[in-house]
Amino acid sequence: MIDTFIIPTLKILIVLNATLVGVSYMTLLERKVIAWAQSRLGPMRVGPQGVLQPIADAVKLILKEDITPSKADKWVFTAAPVISMVPALIVYAVIPFGPVVRLFGRDVSLYITDVNVGLLYIVSVASVGVYGIILAGYASNSKFPLLASLRASAQLISYEVAVTLTLVSVILMSGSLSMVSIVNAQYNAHVWFGFVQPVAFVIFVIGSLAETNRAPFDLPEAEQELTGGFHTEYSGMRFALFFLAEYANMIVVSSVATTLFFGGWLRPFPNVAALHFLDVIPSWTWFLIKSFVFLYLFIWIRATLPRYRYDQLMRLGWKVLIPVAILNLVVTGIVKVMLL
Amino acid sequence: MPITPTHYMLLSAALFIIGVIGVMVRRNIIIIFMSIELILNAVNINLIAFSDQLHNVIGQVFAVFVIAVAAAEAAVGLGIILAFYRNKESVNIDEMNLMRW
Amino acid sequence: MAHAIAFYTLAAFILGFAILVVTTKDTVHSVLFLVLDFLFVAALYVMLNAPFLAVIQVLVYAGGIVVLYLFVVMLVNLKRPPEAHSDPHRMTKFGFGLAGAVLIELGAIVVSGYMKAPAVTSPAQNLPVSGNTEQVGWLLYTNYLIPFEIASMLLLVAMIGAIVLAKREL
Amino acid sequence: MTTNAFEAATVHGEMFDTNELVINMGPQHPSTHGVLRVVLRLDGEKVVDAEVVIGYLHRGIEKLSENRNWTQIILLTDRMDYVAAATSNVGYCETVEKLMAIEVPRRAKYIRTILMELQRIASHCLWVGTHAMDIGAMTVFLYAFRERELILDLFEEFCGARLTYNSMRIGGLPLDIPPGWDKKVLAFCDIMDGKIDEYETLLTHNRIWLERTKGVGVISGAEATALGLCGPALRGSGVARDVRKDEPYSAYAEMDFDIPVGVQGDTYDRYLVRMEEFRQSLRIIRQATQGIPEGPIVGKVPRLIKPAAGETYHAIESPKGELGYFIVSDGKSTNPYRFRVRPPSFCNLQALPRLVRGHLVADVVALIGSIDIVLGEVDR
Question: Residue A117 is nearest to which of C55, C67, C74, comparing CB atoms?
Fold first, then answer.
């Protein structure tokens, strides 16, 4: 009973809540980091150094009037934010935050579940997330959101191909689709896959920037071009859901990047006995630190780079990233067959 | 009350028939295409149910092929719809009576 | 028992959404019901020990093909619903008749299947079902290599065909 | 059944082809720099045609001026190009001085030159910030505004105001520069030198920036002249037309500076021209500040300003281009008989439809940024 029901439920609750809190504090982190990059202070008023800002934002957004345009497709309009939020959350089911640890006299795995198609599960669930954006644009029955959602869907589908191809290179290295096995494979290979698959890693980062609609690929919500992108007509909590989904997706891709390319929960040099003293730090801390580095990278890029144009984005995706990813895959395969 | 392949077959048959009705009754070619997808799914359910029953993975292999064919069919079919729509400004199957224009 | 409940629930959802797909007036809603239908079919695959197929179903069908449908529906936004032309129910009788014929045929197969003794009880290749991703992959690249290559050629041709058809000026 | 967004855009039965989409950019849009409205006809994302709709900020400054006395009009000119108000002031004052043949003391001319060049830098700061922001580089915006703040502080110290200065008088200046102000200006120049490099580090060789600006909105020198483009937008096409050099006013004849010109006439060249103008402005400010002569700040101006009957046109080089004033005096009343402004933003804006045709929606905002308009001046 405890093992089959209570512990999984507890894990789900903890992960879900941690994610939602993490997501809301991502907004604060982003505002703070960008502010520092731009020689500003960022939010300072709510709480010391503005640490309570996400709570104030949430209260504000909940209290705001929730407007549905009169010509909108009401059901779809309501469903769209939910559709974009749900995939972002259910992906966490397979992300390993740590190995199986001994907790209160019981073996507890620091992941919700470990399915043998874990990586494919993530890809497929992420591919459903695109519906939220398309439907938001369609249901608003307004031109700017429609343009934005067409852009978004084209962008997501294009970059998904490149990202998935890089994942295949990693699968070739690990020989498994299970997220836990991929981390263990990195332990056994004595090296993080990020160092043996640098090309795949770079493409993955670029592709995931595009898939999460982050600068410099934030065309679907390019404020300067399409006013607000696909969520122009949204307000209040529904609007907030789109934002939460975007940040949740950022955390997802950071976690996936950490797991696939930077050894997941493993400490640096996991096989070097001399660094054994690092084991006092719990494994999940390493996971969080590495994910945080990626999140910071995302914010940093946003503060630095201008935005791509739609056609340039497509050209980059189809004419650069996908061929390079395929080439990388072929080379990985050949090397794997020849040397191993 | 065990669930036998017969149950899956009946489910698959029902889905198949819904698809057939969609193809025959609706005039919107996009809906017709979607009905064809339903039919293909009905076939896949059968294949996988038998694959499970016989502990033979070949059924799944064929389901993969079916999905590949469905993808190809959707791509070309929707391309035709777009080209047709551009010329006739309609997606009514009854108006699709020319082999070329 | 749990198995039965799961099956009947999923079956109800699959058939219910399938009916909605073919009956809904608004094409976009129809597409959405199709997605939901596919997701429940994927759940059914999980029940049938085919997690790989389930994931492929979601990835290719829900995440790929149906997005394409939605795209086209949005592009081909209709000023007049196609059913408004001529007699909308012109083919209805024929359609239901044909569907009924198929139903009878399938029913006959099922019934005749019950009449005979269960022929196949001992599987020919008793492969372990767990980890079937590997098996599917193995079969695809060995026994079914040529069909697999043909399928990939088919996809390539379809891709080129779609581009040629949909692009206005090449 | 939902009606769809395309429907409104398509004239009934007109098109069989994939729908052409008409969208309204503005008057409430984050990157039309105020209340500009651009009606775009799109084919997919490609702009087939664009129509510029103006007038949302019209306050009738020209007509209003005919009912104000000559000094009161200075205050109205503040409200035209409100990001470079002092330049508009100088332009007007010099026109009246020309009409009345008033000799302005050299000290006033030098200070005017410093103020105008500071305004050019402030205006270009605003331009580089918003232009970069339109293209998606948000950090440059805040950097540029940080430096603009320094200029506003200098102006505040000089005349007490930060946006609409009313800082000129016919015949000279209302008040002399405060003690130590020139030192502060020089100190600002030293700060600004490094900051321009900072903007350029973020943009000039940035690959995305290059892709977004190179080859976008190309216009040849001849065509630009024919369209009446002026200022950096014209110089970006390789035409070295600058009122400061061609018809020197204030103290520009005594200054040593270069006119940067572009080659291609695309958005990137217009960007480079303005970045170089930052440096040239600093050069002028340094020369002028170090050479401020002693003397009075106001020339011999009659107590009642009442020019003899006649008309005159005088142009200066505002940060946006050639800012001209055409004034008719009937010699009888204490207000102008006719007052007309040739605003550079207005003239540059008419090139927008020509520039955006064939480009994508994203380029429209880049091009609006690249011609650097201020709606206060366009609509007046």
Answer: C55
Give the chain B residue whose CA is nearest to the CA of D12.
B89
φ/ψ (deg, to 5) at B97: -120, 15
From chain C, pick out residues whose CB is under 8 angstroms from the CB of D46.
Answer: none
**Taking CA B91 as the corner, what is the angle to CA B87 and CA B97, rounded to the nearest 5 degrees?**
70
- D24 lies in the same domain as D126: no
Q: What is the mean pLDDT of chain D?
A: 83
C32 — contact with chain A (CB < 8 Å)?
yes
The answer to whether D151 and D118 are in contact (CB under 8 A) is yes
Kindly state whether C24 is in contact with chain A, defined as any CB-CB distance less than 8 angstroms. Answer: no
Report the number of distinct structural domains present in chain D: 2
In the predicted model, what is the mean pLDDT of chain C?
77
Q: Rounded CA gap, D376 and D317, in Å?
A: 17
Q: Supply B90's token pair.
A: 């309609």
Q: Which CATH class is domain C1-80?
A: mainly alpha
The pairing of strands D46-53 and D20-25 is unpaired
Q: What is the pLDDT of residue B61?
A: 86
**Residue D13 belongs to domain spanning:** 5-53
Q: Report yes or no: D18 at the B interface, CB cutoff 8 Å.
A: yes
Which pLDDT belongs to residue D4? Answer: 42
Pair (D160, D223) in one structural domain: yes
Nearest to D236 by CA among D196, D276, D280, D284: D276
**Domain covering B5-90 assigned CATH 2.40.50.1070 in the classification:** no
**Residue D91: CATH number of its domain:** 1.10.645.10
Q: Which of C25, C75, C168 sits opposite D1 (nearest CB)?
A: C25
Q: Domain boundaries in chain A?
A: 66-339
| Distance of residue D261 Cα from the nearest chain A Cα, in angstroms | 25
C19-69 residue pLDDT tens: 888 888 888 888 889 988 998 998 888 888 888 888 888 888 888 888 888
Contact C74 A160 (CB under 8 A): no
Q: A135: which chain C residues are within 8 Å (Cβ-Cβ)?
A: 28, 32, 70
Same domain, D219 and D305: yes
Average pLDDT over residues D55-66: 86
Q: Are residues D370 and D248 in the same domain?
A: yes
* C-beta neighbour count of B26 within 10 angstroms: 24
pLDDT at C114: 67
D38 CB near a chain A CB, below 8 Å? no
**Interface pTM, i.e. ipTM:** 0.78
Based on C-alpha coordinates, what's the Rg of chain B?
Answer: 17
Q: What is the pTM of this model?
A: 0.82
Contact B89 D16 (CB under 8 A): yes
